[in-house]
Design goal:
The structure holds 2 protein chains of 2 kinds. Helix content of chain A is 33%, strand content 25%. In chain A, the strands form 2 sheets. A 6-stranded mixed β-sheet of chain A has the order 5-6-7-3-8-9, with helices on both faces. Chain A has 9 helices and 9 strands. Chain B is mainly α. Chain B has a single domain (13-293), classed as Orthogonal Bundle (ABC transporter involved in vitamin B12 uptake, BtuC). Helices cover 77% and strands 0% of the residues of chain B. Classes of the chains: A alpha/beta, B mainly alpha.
Chain lengths: 249, 302
C-alpha cells in the first residue's frame, strides 16, 4: 500500500442500505465503504443480518432501499465483469454433489471462459495456482465430499482466488476450521488485499479480529459501529453488539 | 395392456430358450427393432437429464410436468398440430402457473406442485372424453413404443436432438446452477434463465419420454437412471455415462421382456430400471448398503 499519492479507490460502498424479507426489515440503513486493500470483519449476533448484508452487497437480494456499488459499478454489472467473489457458508453447500475439487475451483473461471466453458491454458494455470496457494494440489482429484472441514473451506477460497475478483465477501469462513487452516485463510486474504482487493468477512472469531482486520463493522440489523479496528473494536461497542460482554483477549 | 402380436409364451418356457434366440428372434421383427432404437434414443436423452434432476432435487417437478402435458397432447391431436408442441406449451405453462401461485399465495411449494399438475391432468381427461381426437388414452398414459407412427418417430427424434444439443452447449452452466446457484450469480450468469432452461429441457424430455413409456411412468425415465448412477460415481462425467448405460440396458431388456412375456412395454422397461437401481443400492462399491455395512464393521485404514 502506498502511503502518499491519491487515496486508494473504493472497492465496495453501500449507502443507506435496507433489506427486507416479506416487508420485515432484516438490515436497516447501512452505509459503509471499503477502500482497496481493506480487510474488514463483520461481527454480530446470530440473526443480526450478517448473511443478509453480505447477500445484498453481492447483489443476490435486491435492497428495499439504498444502493450498493462494487468498484463503482452496480452489483449486476460488477458480477458480469468478474469483480465479485462470494464464499458461501459450508452449510449451504451440497457436499454429496459428484464433483471434484479441481472442478469446483475451475468454476471460478467460468465467467472468463467462452460460452461452452472450455478452459483455456490461462484458466488451467489459474486453477493450479489457486490450488497450490491453499495447499490442496494433492487433493485436486478428490470428490469434495471426501474432504475435512478445513479442506472444504479452502476449496471455496481457492475458487475465489481463481476468479481474480477485486471484492471478496466471505460468510463465516472460519467455522469448523482448525487453527492452521484459519491462519492460511487469513494469510491468503491479506495477500489479496495487499494486491488491491477488498474483503468483508462475517465471523464469530472475535479473538482473531484485532490480528488481521484493518476495519470492523458491528451489526445488529442496524450498523452499530464501523471503522478502524483499534477505534471500533472496543469492549463498550461489543457490549452494544451482543447485549453482554464477550470475553476479549 | 396387450401387445399387438400373438406370440406370447408361458413364462416357464423362457428357461430353455437359448440366449441367442432370445435376442435374435425379436430383432428380426422390424417394429421391434424400431422400438429398440427409438426407445434407446429417448432413454439416452432422459438419462442425461435425469442426472441434473437428481442433483437439483427436481423429481417431483419431473412428475408434475410429465402429467401436466396431457391436455396439450389431446388438444394438439384434436387440432392436427404436432403433439410435441401442445405438450411443450402445457408443460411450460404448468411450471409458470406453479411459480405464479407460489409467489402470490402463502401455499407451500410441494402443495402447489401437487394441485397444479393434478388440475392439468384432470383437464386432459375431460378433454379426451369430449373431443373427437382419435387419441387412444391408454397409448398416452402407458406409451405405445411398439406401435409408434412415423410422424411420432420424427417428432421424438427431433426433440431428442434439440435436448442433447442444448445440454452439450449449456450443460456446464446448468451443472453449476444445480451445485451452487449463488456462485453462478456472482460470476454474472443469469440464473433465472438457467432455471427456465432446465425446466424447458425437462418438458421436452418428458414429451420424448412419454412416447416410450407414457405419461404415468415417464418420471421414472427422468429420475431412476440418475439416481442409480449417483450411487455408483462421485464424478459427474462418469455418472452421466452410467445413467445412460443403465437406461439403455433397461430399455433393451425391457422391450425384449415385454415381447417374450407379452406384457406392458412401459412396465417392463421401468421395472428393469428399478431393478438396476436396487442392485446399485445394495452392491455399489462406495455408497451401496453392503459397502456401508462393511465399513461399519471394519473402518477403513488410511
Amino acid at each position: 500500500m502506498q502511503q502518499s499519492g491519491p487515496p486508494p479507490p473504493d472497492r465496495l460502498t453501500a449507502h443507506d442500505l435496507t433489506v427486507a424479507y416479506d416487508g420485515v426489515p432484516a438490515v436497516v440503513d447501512v452505509t459503509l465503504s471499503l477502500p482497496a486493500g481493506c480487510l474488514c470483519g463483520l461481527v454480530g449476533m446470530n440473526g443480526a443480518g450478517k448473511s443478509t448484508l453480505l447477500k445484498a452487497l453481492g447483489g443476490f437480494v435486491s435492497p428495499a432501499a439504498g444502493s450498493v456499488r462494487l468498484d463503482g459499478l452496480p452489483p449486476a454489472r460488477a458480477q458480469r465483469q468478474q469483480r465479485l467473489a462470494y464464499v458461501p457458508q459450508s452449510e449451504q453447500v451440497d457436499w454429496d454433489f459428484p464433483i471434484r475439487v479441481r472442478d469446483v475451483v475451475l468454476q471460478g473461471r467460468y465467467g472468463r471462459m467462452n460460452l461452452l466453458r472450455w478452459p483455456a491454458a490461462s484458466d488451467r494455470r489459474a486453477v493450479e495456482r489457486a490450488l497450490q496457494r491453499v495447499d490442496l494440489s494433492d487433493l485436486a482429484e478428490r470428490p469434495i465430499g471426501a474432504l475435512s472441514g478445513g479442506q472444504r473451506k479452502r476449496v471455496f477460497l481457492a475458487r475465489a482466488l481463481a476468479q481474480e475478483a477485486t471484492v471478496l465477501l466471505l460468510d463465516e469462513p472460519f467455522t469448523g476450521v482448525d487453527r492452521p487452516t484459519e491462519r492460511l485463510i487469513i494469510a491468503v486474504l491479506r495477500e489479496l488485499c495487499a494486491a488491491g482487493a477488498a474483503a468483508l468477512l462475517a465471523t464469530h472469531d472475535l479473538e482473531a479480529i484485532p490480528d488481521f482486520c484493518d476495519r470492523v463493522l458491528l451489526l445488529n440489523r442496524r450498523l452499530l459501529a464501523f471503522g478502524p479496528t483499534g477505534e471500533v473494536f472496543t469492549q463498550a461497542n461489543l457490549l452494544r453488539t451482543f447485549g453482554a460482554a464477550p470475553v476479549l483477549p | 395392456m396387450s401387445t399387438p402380436f400373438g406370440n406370447a409364451i408361458p413364462l416357464v418356457s423362457l428357461v430353455p430358450l437359448s440366449l441367442g434366440r432370445w435376442l435374435l428372434e425379436p430383432l428380426q421383427q422390424g417394429f421391434l427393432l424400431r422400438a429398440l432404437l427409438l426407445g434407446s434414443l429417448v432413454a439416452v436423452v432422459c438419462a442425461v437429464l435425469s442426472c441434473y434432476m437428481t442433483l437439483k432435487g427436481w423429481a417431483l417437478m419431473g412428475d408434475a410436468v410429465s402429467h401436466a402435458v396431457l391436455p396439450g397432447v389431446v388438444l394438439a391431436y384434436a387440432l392436427g398440430l404436432p403433439y410435441a408442441l401442445g405438450a411443450f406449451l402445457f408443460g411450460v405453462g404448468s411450471v409458470g402457473l406453479m411459480g405464479w401461485i407460489r409467489q402470490h399465495t402463502r401455499v407451500k411449494e410441494d402443495t402447489v406442485i401437487g394441485l397444479v399438475f393434478t388440475g392439468f391432468f384432470a383437464l386432459g381427461l375431460v378433454l379426451i372424453s369430449r373431443l373427437p381426437s382419435g387419441v387412444d388414452l391408454s397409448h398416452i398414459l402407458f406409451g405405445n413404443l411398439l406401435g409408434i407412427t412415423d410422424a411420432d418417430v420424427a417428432q421424438t427424434v427431433a426433440i431428442s436432438l434439440v435436448v442433447l444439443v442444448l445440454l452439450l452447449v449449456r450443460g456446464r452452466d446448468l451443472l453449476l446452477f444445480c451445485f451452487d446457484p449463488g456462485h453462478a450469480r456472482s460470476i454474472g450468469l443469469r440464473t433465472g434463465r438457467l432455471h427456465y432452461l432446465l425446466l424447458t429441457l425437462l418438458s421436452l424430455a418428458a414429451v420424448a419420454g412419454l412416447q416410450a413409456v407414457g405419461i404415468l411412468l415417464v418420471v421414472a425415465m427422468l429420475v431412476t437412471p440418475g439416481a442409480t448412477a449417483y450411487l455408483l460415481s462421485d464424478r459427474f462425467g462418469p455418472m452421466t455415462l452410467l445413467a445412460v448405460l443403465s437406461a439403455v440396458l433397461a430399455t433393451f431388456t425391457g422391450v425384449l421382456l415385454s415381447y417374450w412375456l407379452d406384457a406392458s412395454t412401459a412396465g417392463c422397461i421401468v421395472l428393469v430400471q428399478t431393478a438396476l437401481f436396487l442392485l446399485a443400492a445394495v452392491l455399489a462399491p462406495r455408497h451401496g448398503l453392503l459397502a456401508r455395512q462393511h465399513r461399519r464393521v471394519s473402518p477403513p485404514v488410511r
